[in-house]
Write a structure and sequence with these properties.
Blueprint lengths: L4 E8 L4 E3 L6 E3 L4 H8 L4 E10 L6 H13 L4 E5 L5 H7 L7 E5 L12 H14 L3 E6 L2 E4 L3 E4 L4 E4 L3
Parallel strand pairs: 1-4, 1-5, 5-6, 6-7
Antiparallel strand pairs: 2-3, 7-8, 9-10
Length: 165
C-alpha cells in the first residue's frame, strides 16, 4: 500500500546547484524537488525539510548523524532524501540501522536547473521505489534501484552500479 505522506529531506548536492560562470563557480541553492513535484502534479502529500546545503564531498560524519537523527525522529514511514552523488552510499549505509522505514536516496549528475538534467527522472524512479519497496534503505539512480549496501558510483561511467549480484 502506498503512503499518503512522504517526508523529504534535502541535503544539497549537484541536484540543487546553481552555477554562476563558465569557470564552474557554484553554490548549493534551494531544494529543487518542490518545483519538480509541482510540475509533475504528484498525488501524495509531502513535506520538504532542508537539512543542509552541501556538496556531498564536504559532508562529515556529523552531517550524517544529523541526517540519521532527522530520519529517526520524523513520524513518516516513507522518507526520500535528495543528496549529492559522491557520498550518497556512505549516507545510505549510515541509515541502515534506522528500523521500520522505507528510505530512498537520490540525486543527479547535472543540476535540476539545467534543461538536460537527470534530476526529474531520478526523482521519479525514487518515488516509485519509495511507494513500492519494503522497509530498508535504497539508492535510486540511473533508472535503477539498489539496496544501499550493494551499490557504488562508477565515476568514469557516470552511473551507479551494483556491487553484488
Amino acid at each position: 500500500m502506498s503512503p499518503t505522506f512522504v517526508q523529504i529531506f534535502s541535503c544539497g548536492g549537484t541536484i540543487d546547484k546553481i552555477y554562476f560562470d563558465s569557470k564552474s563557480d557554484y553554490e548549493v541553492g534551494e531544494p529543487q524537488i518542490d518545483e519538480i513535484f509541482k510540475r509533475c502534479g504528484v498525488a501524495f502529500e509531502f513535506e520538504i525539510v532542508s537539512l543542509m546545503r552541501k556538496d556531498s564531498l564536504e559532508m562529515s560524519a556529523e552531517d550524517r548523524t544529523v541526517i540519521q537523527s532527522a530520519v529517526e525522529s520524523c513520524p513518516a514511514s516513507h522518507v526520500l532524501i535528495t543528496h549529492g552523488t559522491d557520498t550518497m552510499t556512505e549516507t545510505g549505509r549510515a541509515l541502515l540501522q534506522v528500523p521500520n522505514k522505507t528510505i530512498v536516496l537520490t540525486g543527479s549528475m547535472t543540476p535540476a536547473r539545467f534543461q538536460a538534467s537527470d534530476a526529474e527522472f531520478n526523482i521519479g524512479v525514487a518515488v516509485g521505489a519509495l511507494m513500492n519497496s519494503a522497509p530498508g534503505v535504497y539508492v535510486a539512480m540511473n533508472g535503477l534501484v539498489f539496496p544501499t549496501d550493494r551499490v557504488q558510483k562508477n565515476r568514469d561511467a557516470g552511473r551507479f552500479e551494483s556491487t553484488k549480484d
